[in-house]
Amino acid sequence: MTEAAITEHRFDAALQALSGYDDVELLSKAMGEIFPDRISVVSAFGAESAVVLDMVARIDRKIPILFVDTGKHFKETLEYRDMLIDRLRLEDVRSIGPAQDKIAGDQTGLLHQTNTDACCEIRKVIPLEEALSEFDCWITGRKRFQGGSRSTLATAEADGPTRLKLNPLANWSPARIDAYFDNYGLPRHPLWFKGYASIGCGPCTGLPTEAGDSRSGRWSGLGKTECGIHRYGSQAA
Ligand code: SF4
Predict the structure, then answer these.
(1) How does pLDDT run across 2-19, given as a tens digit for each residue?
(2) Residue with CA at minimum distance from ligand 1 atom 6
(3) What is the per-residue pLDDT for 162?
(4) Nearest atom of ligand 1 to the alpha carbon of 218
(5) What does the buried/exposed string (b/e) look like for 196-216 if buried means 16 or more CB atoms within 10 Å of the residue's CB?
(6) Domain that includes residue 79, residue range
(7) What Gene Ontology molecular-function terms does this entry list (predicted)?
(8) Quick check: is 63 in a domain?
């Protein structure tokens, strides 16, 4: 069997082992049994990020958490990140960002005004891809209710040929998210109190423009709905 075939077989087996699980059970199985030391969380420390962060912290506070620091975040997000690190006693939060040579093409820092795809590529996609190279699996906070390409999200999916991606909250509703914040007394992002339902980089985040569509304030009016870090996707089982 070739190395590629072995890898494919290994990830098929892991996907099968994780199917049928979600939220805490999915995380416990992946973090404790299948990918110990080879799994990370990717978090934007946004409006609902505290739920997944709290769940993983209850399992293992040492899990690596990757925060893509694009240099364009709201100061409130950076403050919220630091507060959650402290509150949840997260032990390995890694702020990763674009290398200097990569942002040479955005010397004014205004590339987002003319080419959001190129800006996301150098500030998010490339740094994250490099950081994920040491992991076999990563965890996101995406939900189906967020719509668009997320509406058919599976709880476990292939992320290209060599990695898996877990979406432990894929099946959750907004009410369940709110209940988790209340039940565990988790702090909210400061901008959530001002109506921001989905929070990314400052220049590309506004208040929701459509009722019931939490992500409608992201890249509003540009026809863009994702930054590009979720290139691969799967359909819900
Ligand atoms: S969200 Fe906006 S500012 Fe952030 S990386 Fe993408 S285009 Fe640039």
Answers:
(1) 656 557 677 889 999 998
(2) 120
(3) 83
(4) 1
(5) bbbbbbbbbbbebeeeebbbb
(6) 3-194
(7) 4 iron, 4 sulfur cluster binding; adenylyl-sulfate reductase (thioredoxin) activity; metal ion binding; phosphoadenylyl-sulfate reductase (thioredoxin) activity
(8) yes
Catalytic residues, by residue number, are: 227
Burial of 193 (0-12, 13-18, 19+ CB in 10 A): exposed
DSSP three-state, residue 206 = coil
Residue 236 included in any domain:
no
Task: Examine residue 139 and state whether it is found in any structural domain, yes or no.
Answer: yes
Q: Give yes or no for a contact between 26 and 155, defined as CB atoms under 8 angstroms apart.
A: yes
Work out the pLDDT band at 104, boundaries 50, 70, 90.
confident
What atom of ligand 1 comes closest to residue 119's alpha carbon? 8
On whether residue 98 sits in a domain, the answer given is yes
Q: Given the CA of residue 200, which atom of ligand 1 is nearest to it?
A: 1
Sign of the C-alpha dihedral computed for residues 47, 50, 51 and 56 taken in this order: positive
* Number of separate domains in the chain: 1
**The token pair that represents 108 in the structure block:** 């004014």
137 labelled ligand-binding: no
Tell which wins on pLDDT, 9 or 181: 181
Query: For residues 220 and 200, is the Cβ–Cβ distance under 8 A?
Result: no
Whether 68 is in the pocket of ligand 1, judged by its Cβ within 6 Å, is no
- The CATH number assigned to the domain holding 18 equals 3.40.50.620
Say how many Å lie between the CA of residue 22 and the centre of ligand 1. Answer: 30
Is ligand 1 within 6 A of the CB of residue 44? no
